[in-house]
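Re: duplicated header lines in exported structure tokens

Our pipeline writes sequence and tokens for each protein into one text file. With two proteins the header for the second block appears twice in some exports. Here is an export where it did not happen, for reference. First protein block:
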Amino acid sequence: MTRRMACIITMTAMVGFTGYAMAGSSRPITYEKTALSGQEIYIFEDANLNPDCTSAGLDDVQATSGPSHGSIRIVDGKVYPNFPKDSERYKCNLQGDDGVQAFYKSAPGFKGQDQVSLSIHTFSGNARSVVVKVTVE
């Protein structure tokens, strides 16, 4: 009886952690970057590619908040993806593909912390949020 109870508790805990991880996937992805005051840096890029490396459509990327101490520039351009070796799209890493890039530039003379929140809606109907925390030196 004790062994059965331990098994039930273990299974409940595993299901709880799995559910938490899945629920956590809607949380924003956070990146940290460092910039020199007044100089533009790249903070984000994304591309949607088919397995044959052709474009699957451009994302809609918009700043939803920030930056408080600078500006952001979002442009369509060539990006170089970074698919893992076990991905069927790994070969796409060798070529520039149509995508979206975001750049941050602090106000001249500003030093400290800044932050940008981005909303990304993909051509395939998925959405996610990205937060970029920038340390300006």
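Second protein block, exported in the same file:
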Amino acid sequence: MCPKVKQREDDTRSAKMMLKFRDEKIHRMDALVNNKLPAESYLLQENKTLSQEVELLRARMDKNPEVTRFALENIRLSSQLKKYAVCTYNYITL
């Protein structure tokens, strides 16, 4: 399967999961407002759902090749910056 097609399918699956989480949140908020759900139970469920959403976003970010490329570029630039800082410090202290 083409990588772009796979990426598109993963993005679609991720978007569907996000919509599901949001829809569940709306239903819980409605139940809370209508006194059908205790506040403590709502907060526990909300925490669980937000944690799942964060994990989904992390997985999505980890699979994104552009994010990986930027991360590697940042590591390379940080390394260069440290080298320049050491050289500058050594030059100044001479």
